[in-house]
Amino acid sequence: MNHSVLRAQDLHRTYGTRAALRDVSFEIRRGERVALLGASGSGKSTLIRCLCGLETTDPGTGRVEAFGRPLQADGRDSSEIRALRRRIGVIFQQFNLVGRLSVMQNVLTGLAADAPLWRGVLGRYTLDQRARALDALGAIGLAPQAFQRASTLSGGQQQRAAIARVLVQGAELLLADEPVASLDPQSTVRVMDQLAALNRDAGLTLVISLHQVSLARRYCDRVLALRDGELIYDGPSAALTPEFLQKLYGTAAEELLHDDHAAVAAMQTTPFALAA
User: What is the DSSP letter of 252?
Assistant: First the structure.
């Protein structure tokens, strides 16, 4: 818990005349469970993409370090970015699975950075690699579906398959960009329970972009709250009472609270994977 996994310094990102990020700085330590909270358009997705190097900050501004090494600085990628990306898993609201391929084949794409290109194109992975994929699917409860087409899975199962892909990759840090936004309440709880279990059992550091305050309070110890591209709160999730959210967001707080009743009901009927 004492080692820095991710550090952001003075991040700025603009699109035309619109500022998506404004002077954002924070540090994440190994083993933390951090929620990235904010209403639509607050800059959460832009921040996730900058943290993993899918986007750069504005020229001459900002610095992102991963595992103590520079990932990007002053709007330019570091020469170490490919090696660092192997240690960072990313999942999105869209599951990004190839529907016509089996679940196993989709999960094996997590090895793309380590396998020769021809193996990935032809789908020829070693027995050891296939065993790793099966182990990952077993860990998230999808081993029975390993050889089904990915398109046959439910939304929650597809998101869990995306998590298995991160496990096969061997990621130490997971950046999740609204991973449960398109799921029903029960599937939401299953996916969040799975992420919590990976943090507890495998030491995976989590940074999860969320809309629902109840999920942030239940699954994350710490919250980074964004509003209009600015970091307006960095502190314990337990402090996010409705009254405090009103102070932070004003009328926009309603967006962060409107789905909470369904989420709380689902959590009350589903065992919680992470012990308090």
Answer: G
All structural domains of the chain, each given as residue ranges with its CATH number in brackets, are 29-55+75-87+174-276 (3.40.50.300), 96-171 (no CATH)
**H or E segment to which residue 208 belongs:** strand 205-210
pLDDT in tens, 149-180: 999 999 999 999 999 999 999 999 999 999 99
Model pLDDT, residue 274: 45
- Amino acid identity, position 28: I
User: 């439910």: which residue's tokens?
Assistant: 154
| φ, ψ of residue 43 in degrees (nearest 5) | 110, 5
Closest CA relative to residue 194, chosen from 138, 133, 144, 250: 138
Three-class HEC string of 132-196 = HHHHHHHHCCCHHHCCCEHHHCCHHHHHHHHHHHHHHHCCCEEEEECCCCCCCHHHHHHHHHHHH
Give the pTM.
0.86
**Torsional class of 245: left (φ above 0), alpha (ψ -120 to 50), beta (otherwise):** alpha
Of 48, 120, 36, 129, the closest CA to residue 90 belongs to 48
